[in-house]
Give the backbone structure.
Amino acid sequence: MTDEESRLAEIKAYQILDTPPEKELDELAEIASFVCDVPISLITIVDKDRQWFKANKGLNSIQTARKDSFCQHALHKPEEILVVNDSLKDPRFKDNLLVKSDPNIRFYAGAPLVTPKGNALGTLCVIDRKPRTITPNQKSVLKLLAKKAMDYLNTRKLLIQQNNTIETSAKKLKKLTDNVPGGIFQLKMTPEGKMSFDFLSSGMKTLHPTLDLEEWKNSPEIGFALMHPEDVLPLQQSMEDSFKNLTLLYHEYRVEENDSYKWHLIKAEPERLKNGNVVWYGSFQDITHKIEYEKAMEQIAFDISHILRRPVTSLLGLSQLIDKDKGIKKSELKEYVGYIKTMSKELNEFTSELNAIYDKKREQIVSRNVP
């Protein structure tokens, strides 16, 4: 990359061209005009084919062609101030369009705007329509004002970069939150009990497809109308306890859907603000499959306990009888063995049925969780 390519790339990075006037830079140009006692002062940015004025005191135009600009000559020695005491006596400028016609430049002094990389973006310059000289003190002030202008532009550039980073991060975060199973939220409640969502992810539409999220954000109480009537008060009590004691908000409840009910979970960490409000950061989840699984396991445990009781009791009784009866006859032993075989067969049939039931339940749970 050539020096000029590097310089133009930095101009682009500063995102300054064709932006509105900014008070801080206008004031610096005003000070330069006052200190040097001239009618015209500019903060210029020298682009590829034009010279554009970011700050402008005394001229009606907002830009000129680069080939006619005085400032382009200041770019080659960024550490120096370019001074033209009388343009008509300077071979570089005596035939210049801006000298021979409006604004009829005779005097020019420009301090380069130098970036940390050493590139000159343009100048802070002062102009007069009559010849004159510039004092060492005035030169020092121009340099100082040019440095202040660059300090401002560097800070401005940093803020733009930070804003771009924040905007990019916000977009990435939104994509992540929108694709989280269930919904992520930030809920605020005042000491008087007034609630509002500061944030509600699009993932909530998977839980409540017909619900208007914007309406719900402003009126969180709408969510209570979707719940099983018996679960509303316990959830409200959980929220009140979390608000008062700053404990984790964790509650399982039923939500009506298509003439039936699904199980949802709300889980959130509270934070109390200085004004007394509490903000919860948390999520809503559909836990219907988890509840169904737990119920299935409870049923299996009940079946095992209930159905195995009789054969196990019988086997225990037979084993105790055989152990106690030392003089057991062969015919009696065969009878006992017959009982044991019958009980063993019942146990085998039951465990086979149990395995089939469990496999079916597992297939149902897996299929529900496959997208």
